[in-house]
Structure prediction request, 239 residues.
Amino acid sequence: MERLQKVIAHAGVASRRKAEELIQQGRVTVNGEVVTTLGVKVNSNDRIEVNGLPIYKEHPVYFLFYKPKNTLSAVSDDRNRPVVTDYFSHIEQRIYPIGRLDFDTTGLLLLTNDGEFANLLMHPKYKIDKTYVAKVNGIPNKQQLNQLERGIKIDNKTTSPAKARLISHDIKKNTAVVELTIREGWNHQVKNMFAAIKCPVIKLKREKFGFLTMGNLQPGMYRELKAFEVEKLKNMAEN
Ligand code: URA
Prediction:
């Protein structure tokens, strides 16, 4: 289910704000009924008309993107910082990121214009493994790695069982590289987990999202997901 104004905007009829005006002016119908309140949710089976004309949904597209450092996981920024969709300027569909990576985090980010798909993947009950590689200050010992794996309390919630593996360490610099696979997608979760074991993150990259990896992509590059990959993600979410 998606908000009516968002569906109208995605169909390319009007901007989100203009779509809201059209709704409030009584120029939008859903299954033949005029809707004038904002916030009504519709699904893909609902018949939507604007000024008596049916809207057509954009062709759904799905991208796997290698987010570079210092890019915002957003479609625009009021402070004019680079955003991930800058890399898709020639894509005509109105795509947006599914979830977020921090400004300074690099790695695998999915983008789509399919709201139902995005909602499905972002739903808290949909716990897909996400693998990060973090360079941290300090060298975590076995006990600290166990702590990461068993669960860390952050804001009164405890993280689900995770997998943590020390990849390398540098005794002189007192730094380490750790692979961490988590199931949720809370804000700054990986940084907060490492902060909790007193090994603050210096650098963070997401290497895997479920069965998806970045393959040969370089920062700033993307590829379209294959139909079977989209189906597999949907099936994983629905079951
Ligand atoms: N966890 C973080 O702390 N930052 C990210 O960007 C992603 C996960």
The domain at 62-125+212-238 is CATH 3.30.70.580 (Alpha-Beta Plaits). The chain has three domains: 2-54, 62-125+212-238, 130-209. The chain has six helices and 17 strands.
